Amino acid sequence: MKLTMPRFDSAPVLVVGDVMLDRYWHGPTHRISPEAPVPVVKVEQIEDRPGGAGNVALNIAALGAPAWLVGVTGDDEAGLSLQQRLNAAGVYCAFQAHSGKTTITKLRVMSRHQQLIRLDFEEPFKTDGDALLDSVRGLLDKVKVMILSDYGKGALVNHQALIALARERGVPVLADPKGKDFSIYRGATLITPNLSEFEAVVGHCSSEQMLVDKGMALIAELDLEAMLVTRSEHGMTLLRRDEPAMHLPARAREVFDVTGAGDTVISTLGTALAAGESLPHAVGLSNLAAGIVIGKLGTAAVSAPELRRAVQREQGSERGVLGLEQLLQAVEDARAHGERIVFTNGCFDIIHAGHVGYLEEARSLGDRLIVAINDDASVTRLKGPGRPINSVERRMAVLAGLGAVDWVISFAEDTPEALLAQIKPDVLVKGGDYSVDQVVGAAIVQASGGEVKVLNFVESCSTTAIVEKIRQRE
Fold it and tell me: What confidence score (pLDDT) does residue 258 get?
């Protein structure tokens, strides 16, 4: 299955469920308390992150999609902090704020990237189900998918009414279930239990075939369209009516923290479906996103550039020959990762040792090297009849095969100024005996805050000299 990165900016999603605040106290530990055999943490940093349904909405917004969130909080400092952080991330919040109640807060004390203890602050809410339903009713016309993020904390008291309302509007419903009674999700489009939650309902599965058989029976019993069982290090299994089971391997390179991985799965899945992806492709994207997030510490969101890079890595297209739109997107993603972009250009008709050394030196000036080359017609205009010796396709293929080169693109004009104006590299590199002000495009790059470097070619290496030498031997 070949994955592609969809456009998420027109994929609005509504999340309804249990919102909570994940609070982290960070600090060093150098001694044991004299009062008890426990480490003493000197708190130096306090960090608040949206958790539960808030983390689902945050993941949706991080992908660049419009996100709405309906939930319940206390009328307190934690609830205000939660809403402020979600609003700052671009999430529209419609909260029931209960006076005198405590917003669900999970406080984790961290030292040296290790969690020492977690303290939970929560008390039962009496959710106004009708008011929650009214909030959802007013938002369904704005979205393409609704997610029920159920942590069993009491925000969702009318699952069936919510599912029926969405189905009346033709909006698919995805549910991240909780507890042993899955009948409350009857009629949903898809549910996403983890293996433990699934087996708590259907019993132990001693084989994949047993998992598939019990899953298909549950789909029929609950009138679902599909079910995605997340299986930790064993990946995911997608079950659909009248379709063979689809097993996806885990993608994580290193598991650092599984907190919030389920939120990432359902948020990516729902956003991809809202963007028009098929269910198998949406599941494939959510599997990649899960592999990214469990390599992070604590509740975290996966950004669109991170997911796009994972898709490119999956396709083997993280480097190589790109079109302009692809290149601009790749540059945007690289910058989102804090990478420095280097740009150089030329004809590169016959690649020689001088080119290789020059390109390696250019690459050392940053994290990504773009090589822009003149197309055949512009080479002929610049070099005269009989040039180029190699077509633009061959020249790009050779450059793309060099270890120093990340991306190759061609241009039809005599100079790359139009490209430079769009890419705005951090460094423009040119080889030869030039002063900086003689380099074509220098003013464009400097105007956008970049710098210009002039490098020397290896002596006695020249494409023109090589061509002349060959002609003398003919």
Answer: 47
